[in-house]
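> tool_call: predict_assembly(chains=four)
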Amino acid sequence: MKRAEKKLNLPTIRRLPAYLEILKRLHGKGIDYVSTTLLIDELKFESVLVRKDLAGLGIAGKQKLGYRLTELSGAIEEYLGWNRNDEAFLIGAGALGSALLGYSKLEEYGFKIVAAFDSDKVKGGTEIHGKPVFHISKLPNLAKRMGIKIAVLTVPADSAQQVADVLVDSGIRGIWNFTGIELDLPEGVVSHNENITSGFALFSVKLRNLEEVAPQ
Amino acid sequence: MKRAEKKLNLPTIRRLPAYLEILKRLHGKGIDYVSTTLLIDELKFESVLVRKDLAGLGIAGKQKLGYRLTELSGAIEEYLGWNRNDEAFLIGAGALGSALLGYSKLEEYGFKIVAAFDSDKVKGGTEIHGKPVFHISKLPNLAKRMGIKIAVLTVPADSAQQVADVLVDSGIRGIWNFTGIELDLPEGVVSHNENITSGFALFSVKLRNLEEVAPQ
DNA sequence: TAGATTGTTAATCGATTAACAATC
DNA sequence: TAGATTGTTAATCGATTAACAATC
């Protein structure tokens, strides 16, 4: 299969997992071909948009039939790199960190958190959702020995930058950042900020509008 | 204080919490006036953007000085409705649900989860992060008695719609939806979808690019 | 053939950025 | 006054939607 060369735009990339989820469900039902009309039955947006999105993946549909399901989901997984197997560390084993350690979908998508770290004193042999938890002082050594290049950062905001510096020194090149802090990182290290408060703000505004339309 | 009438665009609303966070930090340092140049020192984007964002809040800055910190953060909180006190139920006390029950920032922002529900058999007196957990069968009654109108939905995808129907019947009008499923809801009920896989997809693509630029 | 679908090009809409005027 | 800043209008950029051609 030829690698899709086209650069997809950001909203498209955000939508890809939703397509993949639906495709999985349809695959379970023994469906072989999916049309964009079938896909938008499940989603709530326009079929042109789906078609544009899929066009960038570099696969072709068949008129009257749609896209071959396995080919389509394969292309999405390949585009996202979810057919690979990435190993990552998680730092900050609080409530959010623990939730991510137990979020099995990540592994399904080729993203395996192999160990967690925390600044609290941890007893030897501690595990959360079956993943070992170490004191953060052990991270640099383990990262180098295991060749880990990816980290999930779920520490409190006020230690975010400091921990990030340690990660960079330990050879980490990609940081999935849940701290709400904009990290200062050197060239060659990428981060992606996940910010639940942004989504909460949108939800809040929707709630406020609701109350204004029909108070009490 | 006059209510800001202007409708802010979605990206602006998403940015408001970040401004608020910075303002809180600066407030702790005893700073009274903040300029947009000061704000962008912390963020990584353009000061025009910040100015445009703040313009919609309906407050005025002072040339050479900037905005009065308390007035600015007050206006943001009011716009988001974070100066109110909303009570909510959480449904689905798994890993993610538990994390949200322990996420104290929500309460700081006027959003209080008062109880959790799960379909698993729960013993009387069960608590997670100090919040009582009930069997879901108790929800309709409690929601009505307590006048709860907001729910956080963290159940597995395959029961999402079914639980949402129960919520609507119980008088819930706003659903913060973490299930990854697009809910079918009647007129007058709003939902906001939080989808961690979307963010993970963006992170994955950044990681993939990283590897392509400098393999191994 | 008629109809369902893919896939592309043009038009529109929305958000960011650039330019600059106003003012303390 | 000079300089730092707010705040607005115009230009640009990016994404969605509309229109439609192509084809099985």
